[in-house]
């Protein structure tokens, strides 16, 4: 029995080892599936990392472009501010000249009005003088006529 028992023991040991081997195979399959799944996940993560790296590079390039455009816009703005300042100074000068011209124009308008008033007064006096001259000429004609009449009467 001892012989049988040892065969039975060896069979049992073989069965147990076979069971352990089966379990190890199943565990190895599960681990292989896990490794495969993790490999797929790692590949996806690497693809995403590559894609994100490209996006970051593109964003950096975009940022450089934007910074260049910003610098250009700032230079343009400074130039425009200088132009506005120059224009403002020019406007002040022009306004000052316009005020002086306005004052000169007002003086000339006053002188013109005075000249018109003097001319109107001269016209009025001329008219009066003309009227007096007509009266004097009429008086002279009458006096000459009377003088002739008196000279005829005296002869």
TrEMBL record:
Residues 7-146 form a coiled coil. It comes from the Eukaryota. The keyword Protein biosynthesis does not apply. SUPFAM superfamilies: Tropomyosin. The keyword Coiled coil applies. Pfam families: Tropomyosin. Belongs to the tropomyosin family. PANTHER family: TROPOMYOSIN. This is Tropomyosin. It comes from Eptatretus burgeri.
């Amino acid at each position: 029995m001892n012989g049988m028992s040892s065969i039975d023991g060896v069979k049992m040991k073989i069965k147990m080892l076979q069971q352990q081997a089966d379990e190890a195979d199943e565990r190895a399959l599960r681990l292989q599936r896990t490794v495969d799944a993790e490999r797929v996940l790692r590949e996806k993560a690497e693809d995403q990392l590559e894609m994100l790296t490209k996006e970051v590079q593109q964003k950096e390039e975009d940022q450089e472009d934007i910074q260049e455009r910003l610098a250009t816009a700032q230079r343009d703005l400074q130039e425009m501010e200088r132009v506005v300042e120059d224009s403002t100074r020019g406007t002040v000068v022009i306004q000052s000249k316009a005020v002086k011209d306005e004052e000169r124009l007002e003086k000339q308008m006053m002188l013109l009005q005075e000249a018109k008033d003097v001319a109107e007064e001269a016209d009025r006096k001329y008219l009066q003088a003309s009227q007096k001259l007509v009266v004097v000429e009429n008086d002279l004609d009458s006096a000459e006529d009377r003088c002739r009449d008196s000279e005829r009467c005296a002869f």
